[in-house]
Amino acid sequence: MNQAQGIITSVNGQIATVEIEGDNFPELFEVLSSPEDPKVILEVFSQSRETTFATILSSPDRLFRGMKVSGTGSDLKIPVGQSVLGRVMDLFGNTKDNIGPILEAKKTSIYSKAPSLNIVQSRYQILETGIKAIDFLTPIQRGGKVGFIGGAGVGKTILLTELMHNITGRAQSDATGKAQNVFSVFAGVGERIREGQELYQRLKQSGVLPKTVIILGQMNENAAVRFRVALAAVAQAEYFRDVLKSDVLFFIDNMFRYVQAGAEVATLLGTIPSEQAYQATLQTEVST
Question: Which residues are catalytic?
């Protein structure tokens, strides 16, 4: 199969404009790379008749006008499965914990489709957290969503790690086979590097890390990377749920910075904003 070929005609922040040569066009969300620099990673975000707008997932310092790029025939894929447990990685599956690469890991697309509603089973069941104030005053429903809202230093991260310790740790010591299969997936979207480091150390000390996957796209990363990290973490959580048939605790820190990253990308693309200057696709992105 012939892959798309093109050249970069302009670079605007995190957006590279690519002029396609020939009749082969890349697919939406397809990854583009450069034969001149294998570390260049672009993702097709939108396209017109001859021009493709790609978000820059690698360093923009490596790009220049006239650089040749070609399609890979694949979208972004992230390592999943048992081999990623206890590891810290970035959007591309590169490890950040100085333990070495992830070996023999299966990869899946970060754009996997959600299951259809006719196969989703829902039942009202309380998730016991082991924290009396939560279980009595604000009980959490299994399969539900909860948001922690508060200023700096009020204990949101401590509460998060306590939930991971109580629920995952309790499952490890349980005698039933089903309770053994409880995993946690943590997505650091635009958070501080210090917070990711402290979370890693805290989970390691509490013994919960072997049941946890941490994927980080922190505030030093560009907007396109921060925007996609949440989807990568969702793909990992869905693999544990759908393939390994496990219970999953899924955390995003935090949702506002995910929205903010999407707004930055939309602004650079020059799209017409919605109310309050946010991107018009905000609701779709959050629900996805």
Answer: 156, 191-192
